[in-house]
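new request in #modeling-help
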Amino acid sequence: ETGVTQTPRHLVMGMTNKKSLKCEQHLGHNAMYWYKQSAKKPLELMFVYNFKEQTENNSVPSRFSPECPNSSHLFLHLHTLQPEDSALYLCASSRSSGEADTQYFGPGTRLTVL
Amino acid sequence: GQNIDQPTEMTATEGAIVQINCTYQTSGFNGLFWYQQHAGEAPTFLSYNVLDGLEEKGRFSSFLSRSKGYSYLLLKELQMKDSASYLCAVRDSNYQLIWGAGTKLIIKP
């Protein structure tokens, strides 16, 4: 238990569906991250939020839309996804995004796009 | 470009010692992390090195040589529960984490 929870743990969706992934951290951190993890590939950073402000968007397609209503919650809204978007989506948090702070990860949402 | 290299897969025997290497080429350096990830679970933090040398933490040790762009994770007295993927990540000059693809470690009885 790392103090970061994610729901759902598994999600299967069609290309025309709209769904949302949720992340919550109970560590009092101020920075939150979305990563994509595909088999045998490095973690890909998607978005970074620091004190609820988005500070990083690594050229992520607009079919992925993040939302950070407060420092404890992070959402990833999904719409019109492609089969190649199937992956493990990991959420992480740290005290701050601009310092050498350790990131703590949630267990991830395994997403399958049909 | 920025690059982290680590072996894709390694096999070791229960009770033995294994060394997982990581080499990096990044824009600047602000520390190197090792994480452990069991299948279907969250990556969990193992160690952090920012200065050259060896950091020991129980059965696990991590070594860093900044001049060589090289680190290793040493696991002693291997247990079956150590079967997992081990991820190396370097924080660059912009404090972004650059990740390796991970090393899958298989422990055999």
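bot summary: Chain A touches chain B at residues 2, 4, 40-43, 45, 56, 90, 97-100, 102-108, 110 (CB under 8 Å).
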